[in-house]
Amino acid sequence: MANKTLVAVFSASGVTKRVGEKIAEITGGDFFEIVPEEKYTSADLNYMNNRSRSSVEMNDPASRPGIAVSVADMDSYDTVVIGFPIWWGVAPRIIETFLESYDFSGKTIIPFCTSGGSGVGRSDSALHKNAGGNVKWAKGVQINRPDEAAIRSMLQNAL
């Protein structure tokens, strides 16, 4: 990629992080992990429990979990690859927090997800409202492992 790329991922289990690190390696981009202010415990991630932290967040469209650190110079990036696991059929609320925290005007956003069951689903278009206008969105894809061929295909189709 000729422009400056940021690969920003939220990963609860490490799967999305491994894929994101491989994307950063392939693109020569910078890697940024979206770390919640309050880390998720296994009890927080118990989707079978309606009172677990993740269930409560996902059932509240206004929920915006805090992020521990910020991207130092978002303005310097032309392309932002955003990775996340699928929770309840969509991106976790912390991805909305991330997108609402920066000005993405004039940038290309390439979303990818990891999932044990469903694909990118409606996350692909649902997140557009969180990044504001004047953003070029690539079609979201599911990539569950750091597969170089799948990643290169995603990047080629995105740009």
Span of the ends, CA to CA: 9 Å
Number of helices: 5
Largest sheet: 6 strands, parallel
Structural class: alpha/beta
**What is the strand content?**
15-25%
Chain-wise SSE layout:
Blueprint: E1 5-9, H1 15-27, E2 30-33, H2 53-58, E3 79-85, H3 93-100, E4 108-114, H4 123-126, E5 136-137, E6 141-142, H5 148-158
Parallel strand pairs: 1-2, 1-3, 3-4, 4-5, 4-6
Give your account of this protein's structure:
It contains 5 helices and 6 strands, in the order βαβαβαβαββα. Strands 1, 2, 3, 4, 5 and 6 form a 6-stranded parallel beta sheet that branches. Helices cover 26% and strands 17% of the residues.
Task: Spell out the key features of this protein.
alpha/beta; 6 strands; 159 residues; 5 helices
